[in-house]
Amino acid sequence: MIIYPAIDLRGGKVVRLKEGDPNQQTVFSEDPIATAQIWQDQGAVWLHMVNLDGAFADANENGTILEQAAQLGLNVQFGGGLRSLDDIANAIDRGASRVVLGTLALKDPAAVEEAIARYGAERICVALDARDGKVTTHGWMETSDLTPIEVGQAMAGRGVRHALFTDVSRDGMLTGTNTDATIELAQETGLQVIASGGVATLEELTTLANSGAIAGAVIGMALYTKQFTLVQAIEAVQEV
């Protein structure tokens, strides 16, 4: 199980939002690349980088930060505002090892198939972000009528292999990730599911790893508020 330290970018800074709300923002670093270097020094092989400006349709220069992080030798899983094949191409050209597609996957599933045809299934991940059991889009501002399992099964049928599951109500809250729903999603869809949103304890990571169904976990607030270290997180899932 891979641990992905999160770097959420807004205005060129590393931030965390509570429940995805741009009005509930905490800045943790003015230097995203220094932060990426810290995680790499502590054993990270992958980063989960989110372009919040892109998700909220704000102008930004976060592609440059993606480039610089990739130049460190890290694999970068990059998402936020990738709403066309051109956006995907740009992110991959700038160094993303894998892109995360949310709104595009729901609005234009054929584009996801085309992206897989161009870049391979390993480089494409679908975001199944949910609030109250329904998938959300447009930076978590809009809610659909579909469940993550329904969308996940449809995406698997189109060749998708990787999915990121976030319970939006828990994101940035340190209330614990929704382990039951995450494991169920993986079991019902057969997707390589990456858990996200609210991871607060090493015990949660152990539970996810012990399930045998979860491919990875994104950790943000717990690392930035020093609930545990990245080294401890990596060791916790390696010992399972």
From TrEMBL:
- State any single GO MF term: 1-(5-phosphoribosyl)-5-[(5-phosphoribosylamino)methylideneamino]imidazole-4-carboxamide isomerase activity
Q: Tell me where it resides.
A: Cytoplasm
Please give the name of this protein.
Answer: 1-(5-phosphoribosyl)-5-[(5-phosphoribosylamino)methylideneamino] imidazole-4-carboxamide isomerase
According to UniProt, the reaction catalysed is: 1-(5-phospho-beta-D-ribosyl)-5-[(5-phospho-beta-D-ribosylamino)methylideneamino]imidazole-4-carboxamide = 5-[(5-phospho-1-deoxy-D-ribulos-1-ylimino)methylamino]-1-(5-phospho-beta-D-ribosyl)imidazole-4-carboxamide
GO cellular component terms attached to this protein's record: cytoplasm
Which residues are the active-site ones?
A: D8, D129
Protein family (similarity comment) = Belongs to the HisA/HisF family.
One Pfam match, given by its short name, reads His_biosynth
- Main localization, broad class: cytoplasm
Q: Which InterPro entries does the UniProt record give?
A: Aldolase_TIM, His_biosynth, HisA/PriA, HisA_bact_arch, Isoase_HisA-like, RibuloseP-bd_barrel
Q: Which gene encodes it?
A: hisA
Cite the entry's keywords alphabetically: Amino-acid biosynthesis, Cytoplasm, Histidine biosynthesis, Isomerase
Gene Ontology BP annotations: L-histidine biosynthetic process; L-tryptophan biosynthetic process
